[in-house]
Write the structure tokens for this entry.
Amino acid sequence: MLDERKLAVLRAIITDYVENSEPVGSKALVERYRLDVSPATIRNDMASLEEEGYLTQPHTSAGRIPTDKGYRLFVDRLTTVKPLSLPEKRAISTFLGGAADLDDVVSRTVRLLAQITSQVAIVQYPIVSTAVIRHIDVIRLHPDRALLLLVTSTGRITQAHVELPVETPDADVEAAAVRIGAAVRNLTSAQAVRALNELVRDSASDTVLPPVVNAVTALLAADPTTRVVVGGVQNVARFGDDFHAAMEPVLEALEEQVVLLRLLGEARNDVTVRIGHENEHVGLQSTSVVASGYGMPDDVWATLGVVGPTRMNYPSTMASVRAVARYVGRFLAEG
Amino acid sequence: MLDERKLAVLRAIITDYVENSEPVGSKALVERYRLDVSPATIRNDMASLEEEGYLTQPHTSAGRIPTDKGYRLFVDRLTTVKPLSLPEKRAISTFLGGAADLDDVVSRTVRLLAQITSQVAIVQYPIVSTAVIRHIDVIRLHPDRALLLLVTSTGRITQAHVELPVETPDADVEAAAVRIGAAVRNLTSAQAVRALNELVRDSASDTVLPPVVNAVTALLAADPTTRVVVGGVQNVARFGDDFHAAMEPVLEALEEQVVLLRLLGEARNDVTVRIGHENEHVGLQSTSVVASGYGMPDDVWATLGVVGPTRMNYPSTMASVRAVARYVGRFLAEG
DNA sequence: ACTTGGCACTCTCAGAAGCCGAGTGCCAGT
DNA sequence: ACTGGCACTCGGCTTCTGAGAGTGCCAAGT
């Protein structure tokens, strides 16, 4: 059903459509791409491709445009992600190089991604559970309440409130903090939870320890504040003329942390693409998402990616996302 | 030059234009608003108002629309900010009531503001310098580097890195942290800086104290991380049909923290309005900004506000911004 | 001096008509 | 299996037209 030439035709149509945003016809196709056959032949191929759902016509007797299915085939079989050029790599490296702390790394990354892809960038903060705990701190703000701080090796700070028995002396609180700190330092989230369980078992009499430990465990386990940062929203305005209508739902979706987290999907250390209707969220069904996990090899910390129109340059976007993901992972692993 | 009736005409035109987004003519005006004169009379007044720069015509023989100057007069002299209704007040109160920590308060506020005004909301984090220091912490991440944490009474956490002499024992670092903490606890930023100066003077021999103190002072003084949060960006899509062109620069401006901070302006505890070209930023000259400081009476912590089209409902927007600012201030003062 | 009705004028907008051209599908011929 | 030819379709652009809304101005009325 799909011989070589038909695939070439599909590839050419997508390339052309991505570049010019106009339905592409048989004649223009043979002129611009060296297909070495006549327009009539191409027409037959196009009709066949349309039959099978890879192409569609906006209206009778206009050119063809790719469907989501067409893009999918293109991404899966017709393209290879080219590595970035040396200057591009160097640009990424220097741009990230100046980062001071974790916030800075994330915000630089999101700006960088948005800029080099001209799309909307999304970066998830590294997940605490795969990093190592550096420090725990309990700060008494009120007689009956304390602030719990947790610092990880990636520089990330999470916090929670702890209710305390009112009459607890400050010294006891401090002692509890010290004990917990000693117990979990340099452990991963999973190890820390185990260590804390033991700690509580060994000191059942203590009144301060349990509430604090519970709070720490909750922070470690649920990791409820997994944050997502968005950048380059202004690029939505450039998604295309046909986008002016569908713009509001897209902007709306980008405001919802939950939607974004779902969008990035489960983390994997390679580039994944979700095209048009493959996205669950209705507001984003005329967009595509290109995402990638980042972290160390075999240890994914979080995901980053971009959102753009389905009519996007997939090879170059995928290359950019992959490159940025690798650099960020490497950068965080070092510092 | 501006008798009562002309002002009434201007008010009617703005009211009508805000509602219908269409240039308004003399006939429609006398029909919809009880002006008790003939269209011809209104025409004379309109011509005069145009002469003086309060109105303009999109093209000859269309109706008139207000200029920035017209809106300015309207805001300054033709409107009074009405207090919100009881249900509205209650809605604000319950929406903010459930907030857990500072981040939560800010994010709820920005969502609330965006929703009730249908515009883009901007909320600045409370400035550290007017709050009181609750806790200071120094966490050694590397032999030559430590993380400095600063927690204020509003629950805000700021951080910085400190370079340390490599051979410093952990105990010294801890001791320095304790001394500094004791010196500045429950002081405002300004008081703390003074206290730290004394501390350094009294212990000139110490090698650890100075770098840490310097870092703390820098955090307190420069307050470089004054953050701004934006929400309701999807509302830009509703600013109006004529906005599709000017949309990208607006979105771009909303991404720049610096621009936003400038936009909110110096904090004052009442509502200020900046209309169209009164904004410095070129991308925002077809928008208006309604902002207000918030905090305790006579003690402004930060600013919040909304960005919308110049053709907005000023009285209701101003009322909403004022109400939210007051509630947030009160809420933070209590908790 | 202000207000009003009348009137001529301007200019946009919506719809109709018509042409152009790009593109298609199909068929017969190589 | 490919190609050239041909009839056909249909959206987009231009032009034209009429309708309608709105204006500015003037002369007359209060």
Residues 23, 25-28, 39-40, 43-44, 46-47, 57, 60-63 of chain B lie near DNA strand D (CB under 10 Å from a C1'). The mean pLDDT of chain B is 88. The CA atoms of residues 230 and 271 of chain B lie 19 Å apart.
